[in-house]
Amino acid sequence: MILAQPIWLLLLLIVPLLVWRQRRLSGQRQLVLVMPGQEALRRGATWRVWVRRWLPPMRWVALGLLAVAMARPQQQWQEEKVQADAIDIVLALDISPSMLSKDFDPDRLRVAKQVASDFVENRPYDRIGLVAFSAEAFTQCPLTTDRRVVQQFLRDLQVGRLDDGTAIGMGLATAVNRLKDSPSRSKIVILLTDGENNAGYIAPMKAAEIAKTLGIRVYTVGVGTTGVVLSPARRNPDGSYDYSPRQMEFDTELLNEMAILTGAKFYRAWSEKDLAGIYDEIDRLEKTKVDVSILRHTTELYYWFIGIAVVFLLLETLLRWTLLRSVTI
To answer: Of 80, 140, 145, 320, which sits 20 to 30 A from 86 (CA to CA)?
Structure first.
């Protein structure tokens, strides 16, 4: 709430002066003979005595409210009208068992989901979708501008929902399928995996060629360290995994060729810090153009203060000349 003409608040300084003058002149007034009713004679002081004490303050409060009303209190809020050249983005995440490897803390998948969630948070005007893949691929979340929905679907991603394997071509093809009918002028896929293509009936380069034909840029991210890593070795009947040290390596040349073919870039993430930096760079490269117009709305509130002041003045007058009426001689 703001005041359009706060200078009128200086009138509030007059109220204490009026109170002081009222009390000073009270001794010079005519003698007031208060005639108690029968109830007061029987029981002593009544509610009228208590209410009479509040009559002068009611008048001063009313004057103070009128001064505030003259300062014109207003409620003001602003609305942003956004015109955005938005980008359609599909995140394609590998959820094969190797994404549970412990070279990231606590594992590759959780770090990948958190960093992707932070990326989504910083894209308020874009439509974002989510595809998951291992030996097969599926759409976890279609394109939407609701960031909270995308982030919730990211949190729900789990290893073990599909057969084991890494079908990079299937993952990219599914992501491209979500973007092929998009009216957006800018369409990108961010594909993250930690393994070599060893499953699926669509070759990764074939999916990349389709993406290029449709004007879709594919940023590929290879995540994980090489060498001996504590990684899932066997799935138990209850869905949990037994871990053992395994030699982890994968050919990044394929991911690099896919990215170059579509006019994008390949990134290698050896750590969580690297992965966060990669998403930051993609965020800078694929920035949404936004024109923001601010519309301000104002609602006048002075009439509330005038109304309350009038109520106080009427109530004070009615009480003084009816229930609390006094006879002066």
So the answer is: 140
Q: What does each of the 329 residues of the chain score in pLDDT, given as a tens digit?
A: 788 888 888 888 887 887 777 777 665 555 555 555 555 555 555 666 666 666 777 888 888 888 888 888 888 776 666 676 779 999 999 999 999 999 999 999 999 999 999 999 999 889 999 999 999 999 999 999 999 999 999 999 999 888 889 999 999 999 999 999 998 889 999 999 998 899 999 999 999 999 999 999 999 999 998 889 999 988 888 878 899 998 887 778 999 999 999 999 999 999 999 999 999 999 988 887 766 566 667 788 888 888 988 888 888 888 777 766 654 44
Contact 256, 220 (CB under 8 A): yes
For 70, the 3-state DSSP assignment is: helix
| E strands, 95-174, in order | 127-133, 137-144
* φ, ψ at 45 (rounded to 5°): -65, 140
Say if residue 318 is in the same domain as residue 187.
no
User: What's the CATH number where 188 sits?
Assistant: 3.40.50.410
CA pair distance 180, 184, nearest whole angstrom: 10
Residue 82 within any structural domain of the chain: no
Contacts (Cβ under 8 Å, ≥6 apart) of 62: 308, 309, 310, 312, 313, 316
Write down the pTM of the prediction. 0.67
| Domain residue limits at 94 | 87-287
- 262 shares a domain with 124: yes
**Contact between 223 and 166 (Cβ < 8 Å):** no
Please indicate, yes or no, whether residues 10 and 60 belong to a single structural domain of this protein: yes
